[in-house]
Specification:
The protein is mainly α and 291 residues long. The protein has a single domain, classed as MetI-like fold. Helices cover 77% and strands 0% of the residues. The longest helix has 56 residues, at 232-287. The chain starts with a helix and ends with a helix. Residues 64-252 form the ABC transmembrane type-1 domain.
């Protein structure tokens, strides 16, 4: 296994484990005052306490599920919608032009600005943050999928499939979708890292999470006024975000490095065999039953 992929999967797996068993490991209630304010890391408080006396370690554990779940669900939603828009490119026509014009318009806005506008308009709740994240990354996924679909559309085996009367629907689901699935997986992984940063940035600005939420972005925002006297309030959540994003990027890079050559090798063999098979059918059809 690729070193990047293995290392990234280990770290991501640890974070997922924290999400699952974190509530059982919290030494104190994450939103309750558990000690004096601004206590530096000790045995009783492994990551210290914040300006209100809340245990930072407990809040880190409690906040892990929020950022990971919100970003992942948002990216899944954006990928689902983006794949649908991307496959419209196979059919082309007026609808494809209108949708791609809309996609290009959305891409002209910066990610963070779009997130601010969407979440501010919809409301300050996690569900709107998920919808906003999906809406933001939808056009980016659509462009990648559409380019892949159009590339597959020009392959010889697609031409041969059309020659024997295969419908567009069959071609899309039987031939093109399996060949772009790998690209979608890499896209989801890459966008997930970006989604984590977006969710953290919006929560830092006070959007998408309640005021007392132990979200990592909000923890950084709450601790910035105490950065000089109690840097651990900011450093631990910032470090958690950075480590998770780096790990996800390692997974994305590892998937791309280890799978690209194997994928294209299988794809070429698949295409070659399918082309030969379809050409043989086309040739038999041309000969007719009496030859």
């Amino acid at each position: 296994m690729n070193t990047k992929l293995a290392l990234g999967l280990i770290v991501v797996g640890i974070f997922i484990l924290i999400v699952l068993i974190g509530p059982l490991m919290e030494p104190y209630p994450p939103s309750a005052v558990s000690g004096p304010p601004l206590v530096s890391p000790t045995i009783s408080y492994p990551m210290g306490t914040d300006h209100l006396g809340r245990d930072v370690f407990s809040r880190i554990l409690a906040g892990s599920g929020g950022i990971i779940t919100t970003a992942f669900l948002g990216i899944l939603l954006g990928t689902f919608l983006g794949v649908i828009l991307g496959f419209v490119g196979f059919f082309g026509g007026f609808l494809d032009e209108i949708l791609m014009g809309f996609v290009d318009l959305l891409l002209s806005f910066p990610v963070l600005l779009t997130g601010l506008l969407v979440v501010s308009a919809l409301g300050n709740e996690s569900v709107w943050l998920i919808l906003g994240t999906g809406f933001i990354f939808m056009p980016r996924t659509a462009k990648v999928v559409r380019a892949s679909v159009l590339n597959e559309k020009t392959e010889e085996y697609i031409t041969a499939a059309k020659a024997i009367g295969a419908s567009d629907t069959r071609i899309v689901f039987k031939h093109i979708l399996p060949n772009v699935f790998y690209i979608v997986i890499v896209e989801v992984t890459t966008r997930f890292a970006q989604g984590l940063l977006l969710v953290s940035a919006l929560s830092f600005l006070g959007l998408g999470t309640p005021l007392d939420s132990p979200d990592w972005g909000r923890m950084i925002s709450d601790g910035r006024d105490y950065l000089l006297v109690a840097p651990w309030i900011v450093l631990f959540p910032a470090g958690a975000i950075s480590l998770l994003v780096i790990a996800v990027n390692l997974v994305a890079d590892g998937l791309q490095e280890t799978s690209t050559n194997r994928y294209w090798s299988k794809a070429n063999n698949f295409h070659t065999g399918k082309i030969a098979y379809l050409k043989r059918i086309v040739g038999n059809n041309r000969k007719g039953p009496d030859t």
